[in-house]
Fold:
Amino acid sequence: MVIKEDILPDREFVLNLLKKLKIPLSVRRHSEKVADKAMQIGSKIKKTKVDMHLIEIGALLHDIGRTKAHGFKHALIGGKIIRQRGFSERLARICETHILGGIDKEDAGKIGLPIKDYLPTTLEEKIICLADKHMSGTKEVSIQERFNRWFQKYGKSEILIKSKNRIEKIQNEIESLM
Structure:
């Protein structure tokens, strides 16, 4: 018997699903680059086991919510789409926790999300969150470059500063496992 938690589609299915849902080509290309980066990060981890299939599929699906929104809510929409399709809850969590460096419940309320923590907790969630921050569109950037762009565009808000600190902590944690 297959438990819902174990339902992970394969790469070809996911790429076809993203096309079918009319995810813009630029977002699909971004997701493929995030998947490549996440796989690269995951393959370097030697001190613990990581689920490379989950990393690949989760990274490809992390922005599936962009079918309906491009702000913070795309994360929630993505989780909902994943659940409606009967896929693993682990994939839904990846969608919901990849935004910024994760969002705590205090900040969730400030940006209009339901009040709860949207923080990556599993190693796979953290790897995808980190890989996503390393991709600006399809171009790889440093964490500093990514946040500098956001600081210029949105100002050095408390939420962005906390997010940058979280991502740096995630990066250090992942590097300690290599």
